[in-house]
Amino acid sequence: xxxxxxxxxxxxxxxxxxxxxxxxxxxxxxxxxxxxxxxxxxxxxxxxxxxxxxxxxxxxxxxxxxxxxxxxxxxxxxxxxxxxxxxxxxxxxxxxxxxxxxxxxxxxxxxxxxxxxxxxxxxxxxxxxxxxxxxxxxxxxxxxxxxxxxxxxxxxxxxxxxxxxxxxxxxxxxxxxxxxxxxxxxxxxxxxxxxxxxxxxxxxxxxxxxxxxxxxxxxxxxxxxxxxxxxxxxxxxxxxxxxxxxxxxxxxxxxxxxxxxxxxxxxxxxxxxx
Length: 274
Ligand SMILES: [Zn+2]
Prior knowledge:
By secondary structure, the protein is α+β, with helices and mostly antiparallel strands. The chain is 22% helix and 29% strand. The chain folds into 2 domains: 2-83, CATH 2.40.50.730; 110-271, no CATH class. The protein contains 5 helices and 16 strands. The relative contact order is 0.17. Zinc ion binds at residues 109-111, 181-182, 184, 187, 190.
């Protein structure tokens, strides 16, 4: 068991699983800028005082995984989570306070990360896309979680007397994919799944406001085009692999205003070329 200090940069949308109850992938960087994944964490079951936000420093006792070979994975002891200082807010501040940790190890491309994965099981990274072409939206085949996952969730809650605590997370009935290319001659383009908690939450926020599904999708796309991947932003994708298949997905987006990331490589993103 070791004490880890991590700057949380990623929370994926909660996902019930048959093995681990409800899963949220959380990941971050250490003070040295190295990536760490904390897994599994039943995030919504944490007491309020331990529900860390994104861009919050935390300290946690954790140990290496026996079954998860991914290089950056740690098994945390959830009741040991402590906040360390206040979250670093973006409002009225530039993002360089975050960028100095987050952007320490930017990979050139997905192709570079695939190679690293083969060499040492690298499973987390941050890349700066050369061109972001689109946000593709597709309806999910199943609009609700698989019955087996829901049953496991009920079962776990029952045994641990947590059944009264919460409803299962609402499934987002759409798949979002980022279509982009990297700055690498080997790149053939990517359509990578986006599992960022922010997009799912945004989608539900629209629905709860009474928007139709089409309007909700439009709302998410708006956010994508005018904010996360706007030409005024220096956009980076946090990417990570899915345990079972080793497939890479986008798990978060880091999008400081151009020139305000604290990164020496700040430059305008080449958006939507003809
Ligand atoms: Zn590529």
